[in-house]
Amino acid sequence: MNKSTVIKFLDFLSFVSLTLMLSTGVFLRYTLPPRSGGDEVWGFSRHDWGNVHFYLSVIFLVLMSAHLVMHAKFIKSAILGKAPTEKYYRLAVGIVGAAALIALSFSPVISPINDNNKGHKNYHEIRE
């Protein structure tokens, strides 16, 4: 596997982990806030979703560290003012991929909440 392929794969995984981390953070804040009782989504309680969020954060940190190491030559040339211009076709592909990934990663937010204490399902409501 050449360096360019590794960088593309690493960048893709970094983006996926960031999007999922953002999704779980918003999800925990608005769907399963503190003191949400026995509410569960997909069989996971608030505590379980917090663990998912934490491990996604660790994965993202590791991937970003590897990303910076892989782009060290570019970072050095950018600091020295010698960086090449980027190609714009990547932007279009990135936008389409980002829209699909964001839609997928926010699916827990629109999923029903199972209230284990009351034994029924309800949908997301803003709790304060």
Task: Chart the SSEs and their pairings.
Elements lengths: L2 H28 L8 E2 L5 H25 L1 H8 L9 H17 L7 E3 L4 E3 L6
Antiparallel strand pairs: 1-2, 2-3
Helix pairs in contact: 1-2, 1-4
Helix content: 55-70%
The major β-sheet equals: 3 strands, antiparallel
Strand order of the largest sheet: 1-2-3
Distance N to C terminus: 51 Å
Beta-strand portion reads 5-15%
Number of strands: 3
> Strand pairing plus helix content: what structural class?
mainly alpha
The string of secondary-structure elements, in order, is: HEHHHEE
Number of domains: 1
Rg estimate, integer Å: 19 Å
H/I helix tally: 4
Spans where pLDDT lies below 50 across 5 or more residues: none
- Provide mean pLDDT, rounded: 75
Shape, please? elongated
Describe this structure in words.
The chain is mainly alpha-helical. The chain has one domain. It has helices at residues 3-30, 46-70, 72-79, 89-105; strands spanning 39-40, 113-115, 120-122. The chain has a three-stranded antiparallel sheet, with no helix packed on it. Helix 1 (3-30) packs antiparallel against helix 2 (46-70) and helix 1 packs parallel to helix 4. The radius of gyration is 19 Å and the shape is elongated.
